[in-house]
Amino acid sequence: MRFIKTVLCAFAAAAAVGAAQAQAYPTKPITWIVPFAAGGPTDALARSIAERVARELGQPIVIDNSAGAGGTIGAAKAARATPDGYTMLVGHMGYMGAAPALYKKLSYDPVKDFEPVFRFPDTPLVLMVRKEHPARNIEGLIDFARKSPDKLFISNAGVGSSSHLIAALVASAANVKVTLVPYKGAGPALVDVIGGQVDGIFDQTNTALPQITESKVRALAVTSKVRLPQLKDVPTLAETVLPGFEASTWYGIYAPRGTPKAVLDKVQQAYLKVMTDKAFTDKMSSQAIQMLPAEQYTGAALGKHTEAEVARWKAVAAKTNISLD
Ligand code: MLT
């Protein structure tokens, strides 16, 4: 009887310490794992949000670029992290949505192994080609791919990344064969389009727009439903070669399963202040990043979205041949 009382007291003491730690959170820097190389759109958007959330929380947020395998290496690292609020994952449609449909041996479950914390705004993508490529528009690029099936090289951020998935879906829908060239992130993948080592890329607007403005690449089409204010002369895929086609990259912050709710609530409160800050929303608009209705930013909404995306991509993979291993 005494033993049971001792154990119960120990549990009660541990629970009290946990609650006190959660209330005091954060007392040291926080790590956000970005599973792509620095310099890409996920890294850029994460850093832009992290600096603002860090100011609200009163502790630095350090970005850990753990790249590879389309982001699944970084996601697995986050799933195994201590659930104390000091390590979180910058999640994304690839490794937190499509990966279960594309990888037979995935070492984490996007739904079971994580607590969804909050969702970022969505980012449309731009199809860009190297300046010297002969294609002057999307129709010309598809015609080129039809005539020279093994001569079109499209870079991406790794198998299962959105730049890979969208390129594979567009090629499949247009019934053309392209060679998909994986990198550790869209940052290095875009550098090789600018340098002419590969022919093109689908890249998110926040990193694509500066390169287009500086005429380092040529924009042929956007994946958004309607044309982007910053690229009025660039048609959508839907109005040209793929009626009804629309795609964007979604993101969100996830904590390892078991992270205390008091910690998650604090991070969510800090984030929601950022989402209503005009300087931030103006910056997002300038990058053609699309703010969402407020109710879609919550952890609960991100959790529902994640489950729906895992199911959707299983259906997509069954219809197309974008399985990876
Ligand atoms: C992708 O899915 O292509 C990623 O967003 C690329 C990146 O952020 O590096």
Q: How would you describe this structure to a colleague?
A:
The protein is α/β, with parallel strands linked by helices. The mean pLDDT is 94. α2 (41-57) crosses α9 (261-275) and α4 runs parallel beside α11. The strands form 2 sheets. Strands 5, 6, 7, 8, 9 and 10 form a 6-stranded mixed sheet that branches. The chain has a 5-stranded mixed sheet with strand order 2-1-3-11-4, sandwiched between helices. β1 (30-34), α2 (41-57) and β2 (61-65) form a beta-alpha-beta unit. The chain has 11 helices and 11 strands. 44% of the residues lie in helices and 18% in strands. The relative contact order is 0.19. The termini are far apart. It has helices at 2-24, 41-57, 72-79, 94-102, 138-147, 162-173, 186-194, 205-213, 261-275, 278-286, 299-319; strands at residues 30-34, 61-65, 87-92, 114-119, 123-130, 153-156, 179-182, 200-204, 217-222, 248-249, 251-256. It folds into 2 domains: 28-122 and 250-320, D-Maltodextrin-Binding Protein, domain 2 (3-Layer(aba) Sandwich), CATH 3.40.190.150; 123-248, D-Maltodextrin-Binding Protein, domain 2 (3-Layer(aba) Sandwich), CATH 3.40.190.10.
Q: Report the total helices.
A: 11
Mean pLDDT: 94
Using the CA coordinates, give the radius of gyration.
21 Å
Give the count of structural domains. 2
What is the terminal-to-terminal distance?
55 Å
Query: What is the H/E order?
Result: HEHEHEHEEHEHEHEHEEEHHH
Q: Might you state the CATH topology name of the largest domain?
A: D-Maltodextrin-Binding Protein, domain 2
- So what's the CATH class of the largest domain? Alpha Beta
Shape: elongated
Largest sheet features: 6 strands, mixed
Sequence stretches where pLDDT stays below 50 over 5 or more residues: none
